[in-house]
Amino acid sequence: MGIRVAVAGASGYAGGELLRLLAGHPEFELVAATAHRQAGQPLDAVHPQLTGLDLVLAETDPGRLAEADLVFLALPHGESAAIAAQLPAAVRVVDLGADHRLVDGDAWASYYGGPHAGAWTYGLPELPGQRERIAAATRVANTGCYAATIILALAPLIAAGAAQPADVVVVAASGTSGAGRAAKPHLLASEVMGDLSPYRVGAHQHVPEIKQATGATGLSFTPVLAPMPRGILATVTALPAREVDPRTVLAEAYADDPFVHLLPEGRWPHTAATLGGNSCHLQATVDTDSGRLIVVAALDNLGKGAAGQAVQNANLMFGLPETTGLSSWGVTR
């Protein structure tokens, strides 16, 4: 018998991708998938891509979830903490929501509102020393999708003293699945197709998470909704702190990482290349006019930005190779 796994919030996009990955995982045995409004429906009625996975979505009951060895919480922001608090300490939990990412309660109140549930071990293995912390943890807070993209591009530059932390500018485009599955007029295909639109300009909720993980002290972030289902492309720029080749810094930082790839010089990331995989593609240069360091990063917001990252963290928590059940390679569109 394998490691028993339950997924709360299985009807959403991240939950569906998580189920797909778990169905092919050699060590995790999916024993429960729960939802709210769609509880009682066969799984393949909600996720047709999972036809053949014989499950019925159950109500999100902490008692049912507690029967598993590992619980993934793929719930809307603000809903994970109450469920997690009712799970036994022996049950390992990976939260794909934001409830436990931030250390600073004031930052939580400012960007999310409501009571701060406290910080868990932050789930980005590629940060220095973080693999060991995740492996020792029973509660892990998965990264945000934008945050994962930007942190992987920026953190090594600040850590190496190559970039000034006080002046970081990011423009990043994301597919519509990043907004969740709830029906919203501005996400209708007729509204999104043929259009690019910024949103939450100057106040996106991932800003404090990015600053916390990278050491950035000044961050201007403009997110853009792109007419595609999934994927993130982020352009990160910062003033140099010393004369440096940013590619060298990134190459040294990720030399042994299985899922972060610095592309050959001159080849730039694009979202389609990461679709369906757990990889992040990076490229870097120095702007010839301004002298700013530029890093472009691409990943699948439902893969390395959510479900794939969650499985990677869970692998570490159970002493498995972090690549178990995951692929670095994308799929053909």
Q: Which key features would you list for this structure?
A:
alpha/beta, 14 strands, Dihydrodipicolinate Reductase, domain 2, seven-stranded parallel β-sheet, single chain, 333 residues, 26% helix, Rossmann fold
Walk me through what this model shows:
This protein has 333 residues and is α/β, with parallel strands linked by helices. The chain has two domains: 3-143 and 304-317, Rossmann fold (3-Layer(aba) Sandwich), CATH 3.40.50; 146-301, Dihydrodipicolinate Reductase, domain 2 (2-Layer Sandwich), CATH 3.30.360.10. It contains eleven helices and 14 strands. The protein has helices at 13-23, 43-46, 62-65, 80-84, 105-111, 130-135, 145-159, 189-192, 207-214, 246-253, 303-317, and strands at 3-8, 28-35, 58-59, 70-73, 92-95, 121-123, 139-142, 163-174, 197-198, 219-225, 232-240, 260-262, 280-286, 293-299. A seven-stranded parallel sheet has the order 3-2-1-4-5-7-6. It has a seven-stranded mixed sheet with strand order 9-10-8-11-14-13-12. β6 (121-123), α6 (130-135) and β7 (139-142) form a beta-alpha-beta unit. α1 (13-23) packs across α11 (303-317) and α7 (145-159) runs parallel beside α9. The protein starts with a strand and ends in a 16-residue tail after the last helix.
